[in-house]
Model the fold of this input.
Amino acid sequence: MALMINDDCINCEACAVECPAEAIYEPDENRNAKAKHSAPISNEHFYIVIEICDECSGLNKVKCIAVCPMDAIKVISPVNKLTKKR
Ligand code: SF4
Ligand code: SF4
Done:
């Protein structure tokens, strides 16, 4: 499983606040040292760094999806996750 934020995002920040792995970044924000690359993934809406996201491992729900008011966070296929690796 890998997660992606789509264009329905209204940049409310709720998901980033709730993410226990600090894997969600503001648009235009550079990724931190835990990520492999520093360039932002999106300049328009919040984004998830899949190398950092642990899919809320050990928790009883996926926190970012649970709090998103726009249903903008979608599960993408493992194939997409592999192709995103650089
Ligand atoms: S699934 Fe969990 S760890 Fe991954 S981005 Fe969402 S809240 Fe963060
Ligand atoms: S909670 Fe949803 S609408 Fe708000 S910033 Fe995250 S993805 Fe965007």
